[in-house]
From TrEMBL:
<keyword id="KW-0479">Metal-binding</keyword>
<keyword id="KW-0560">Oxidoreductase</keyword>
<dbReference type="GO" id="GO:0000287">
    <property type="term" value="F:magnesium ion binding"/>
</dbReference>
<keyword id="KW-0456">Lyase</keyword>
<dbReference type="InterPro" id="IPR011829">
    <property type="entry name" value="TTC_DH"/>
</dbReference>
<feature type="domain" description="Isopropylmalate dehydrogenase-like">
    <location>
        <begin position="8"/>
        <end position="354"/>
    </location>
</feature>
<dbReference type="GO" id="GO:0051287">
    <property type="term" value="F:NAD binding"/>
</dbReference>
<dbReference type="GO" id="GO:0046553">
    <property type="term" value="F:D-malate dehydrogenase (decarboxylating) (NAD+) activity"/>
</dbReference>
<keyword id="KW-0520">NAD</keyword>
<dbReference type="InterPro" id="IPR050501">
    <property type="entry name" value="ICDH/IPMDH"/>
</dbReference>
<keyword id="KW-0464">Manganese</keyword>
<protein>
    <recommendedName>
        <fullName>D-malate dehydrogenase (decarboxylating)</fullName>
        <ecNumber>1.1.1.83</ecNumber>
    </recommendedName>
</protein>
<dbReference type="GO" id="GO:0016829">
    <property type="term" value="F:lyase activity"/>
</dbReference>
<comment type="similarity">
    <text>Belongs to the isocitrate and isopropylmalate dehydrogenases family.</text>
</comment>
<dbReference type="InterPro" id="IPR019818">
    <property type="entry name" value="IsoCit/isopropylmalate_DH_CS"/>
</dbReference>
<dbReference type="Pfam" id="PF00180">
    <property type="entry name" value="Iso_dh"/>
</dbReference>
<dbReference type="InterPro" id="IPR024084">
    <property type="entry name" value="IsoPropMal-DH-like_dom"/>
</dbReference>
Length: 362
C-alpha cells in the first residue's frame, strides 16, 4: 500500500468559541482520515495566536508567524476577537494579516437551508435557499487606506478618511471566479452587488468589469443589483439567487444576513482562498468568538465542520467533502441541535453525532 497523502495543517483556534469549534472540526477530519483506508492523513500544528497571546506579548501572532505558516498546505482557523483587545487590532493583527499576505483574494461563503433547522424565512418545507456568496477579499473597503486626525484643528474637529480601493485586475479576478463557480452549480446565475449609484468611482469600475467579463460566459444568467435592494431580495426572493459576488464590505454584511436567514450564524462555513495556490488558503467559520457563550460547550460546530468540508474540497477530496456536508445535514435532521438553532445539545454531542453518521455510512 502506498503512503497516504499527508496534508500539513496549521490550526489557529484563536479566541472564545474558536477553540471549541476548531477542536470539533479536527476530531471529524481525523476520523475521516482514519477511515480513508490510508488514502489521506492530516499532520496538525497548533498555534496559540490570539488576544490572550497579545496580552502577553503585545503581538497577535509571532513575529515570524507568516514565514512559519507559508509551509503549510492550509490553515484551519477559529475566530478572532475578545473584549480585552480593540477589534481592529485583533482583526488586522491576525486574520486580515494572513488573508492579505497570502493573497487569499476569494472568500467563499455558502448559504443554504438545513433540513431540521427553522429559518426565519422558511415559508414552506420545500422553500429553497442555496447560494454561495463570493466575497472580494483583498481590497475594496478593507484596503486599510486612510488616516485619522487629518484636519489638524484639534479636539472636537477630527477628520478621518477611509478609502476603498478598486483595481480592474482585482475586480476581474473575483468576478471570473464567481462565473466559473456558477458554471458548476445547478443554477447558472451570477448576481453582482454594488452601490454604484452613490459610490461613483470604484463601484462603477466593478459594474463595468462585470458587464465585460459576463460576455465570456453567455451560458450564465446575470444581474446587477444595488446592495440595499439585494438585502431586501435575500429576504423576499431567496429562490432567485445562486452565486452572489460583491466587494469586501458588502459581501461581509450580506453573508452574515444569509447565515442568519439559514437559521444561525453558527451554521456558516467559509474559505479564504488563494486560487493561484502560491500560498496556503484558510478555512474558518463565518461567526466570531461569541464571548457571550464561550467556554460553555454551547457553540454550534456546524460552521467550523462545514469549513473543514471546504478544505477537503480544496484538496481535491470532493467526494469526502460532499459526505461531510451530508453528515452535518443528517445530524441536524435527526434533531441533534445546539441552542442557537433551537436544540439543547452541546458542541461535543453534535460532533459525536456527525461522527456517528459518518461511521454508519458505507
Ligand atoms: P465578529 O466581529 O468576529 O464577526 P460578531 O461581533 O459579529 O463577531 P459573533 O461572535 O459572531 O459576533 O456572535 C454574534 C452572535 O452569534 C452571538 O450572540 C453569538 O453567541 C452567536 N454565535 C456566534 N457563533 C456561534 C456559534 N458557533 N454557535 C452558536 N452561536 C453563535
Ligand atoms: Mg460579524
Amino acid at each position: 500500500m502506498s503512503a497516504p497523502t499527508t496534508y500539513k495543517i496549521a490550526a489557529i483556534p484563536a479566541d472564545g468559541v474558536g477553540a471549541e469549534v476548531v477542536a470539533a472540526g479536527r476530531t471529524v477530519l481525523d476520523a475521516m482520515a482514519a477511515a480513508s483506508g490510508g488514502t489521506f492523513a492530516f499532520d496538525w500544528t497548533e498555534f496559540p495566536w490570539s488576544c490572550e497571546y497579545y496580552t502577553r506579548t503585545g503581538r497577535m501572532m509571532a513575529e515570524d508567524g507568516l514565514d512559519v505558516l507559508r509551509d503549510f498546505d492550509a490553515i484551519y482557523f477559529g475566530a478572532v476577537g475578545w473584549p480585552s483587545v480593540p477589534d481592529h487590532i485583533s482583526l488586522w493583527g491576525l486574520r486580515l494579516k494572513i488573508c492579505q499576505n497570502f493573497d487569499q483574494w476569494a472568500n467563499i461563503r455558502p448559504v443554504h437551508f438545513h433540513p431540521g433547522i427553522t429559518s426565519p424565512l422558511r415559508k414552506a418545507d420545500d422553500a429553497d435557499l442555496d447560494w454561495v456568496v463570493v466575497r472580494e477579499n483583498s481590497e475594496g473597503e478593507y484596503a486599510g487606506l486612510g488616516g485619522r486626525n487629518l484636519s489638524g484643528r484639534g479636539e472636537g474637529n477630527e477628520v478621518a478618511l477611509q478609502t476603498a480601493l478598486f483595481t480592474e485586475r482585482g475586480c476581474e479576478r473575483i468576478i471570473r471566479f464567481a462565473f466559473d463557480l456558477a458554471r458548476e452549480r445547478p443554477r447558472k446565475k451570477v448576481s453582482s452587488v454594488t452601490k454604484s449609484n452613490a459610490q461613483q468611482f470604484g463601484m462603477v469600475l466593478w459594474d463595468e468589469t462585470f458587464t465585460r467579463v459576463a460576455r465570456d460566459y453567455p451560458d450564465v444568467e446575470t444581474e446587477s443589483v444595488l446592495v440595499d435592494a439585494m438585502a431586501a431580495k435575500f429576504v423576499l426572493k431567496p429562490e432567485d439567487l445562486s452565486v452572489v459576488v460583491a466587494s469586501n464590505l458588502n459581501a461581509d454584511i450580506l453573508s452574515d444576513l444569509g447565515s442568519a436567514l439559514a437559521g444561525s450564524l453558527g451554521l456558516a462555513a467559509s474559505a479564504n482562498l488563494n486560487p493561484d495556490r502560491r500560498f496556503p488558503s484558510m478555512f474558518e467559520p463565518v461567526h466570531g468568538s461569541a464571548p457571550d457563550i464561550a467556554g460553555r460547550g454551547l457553540a454550534n460546530p456546524a460552521g467550523a465542520i462545514g469549513s473543514a468540508a471546504l478544505m477537503l474540497d480544496h484538496f481535491g477530496l470532493q467526494a469526502e467533502a460532499a459526505r461531510l456536508n451530508a453528515a452535518i445535514e443528517a445530524t441536524a435532521a435527526a434533531g441533534v441541535l445546539t441552542p442557537d438553532v433551537g436544540g439543547n445539545a452541546k458542541t461535543d454531542e453534535v460532533t459525536e453525532a456527525v461522527l456517528g453518521v459518518l461511521s454508519e455510512w458505507p
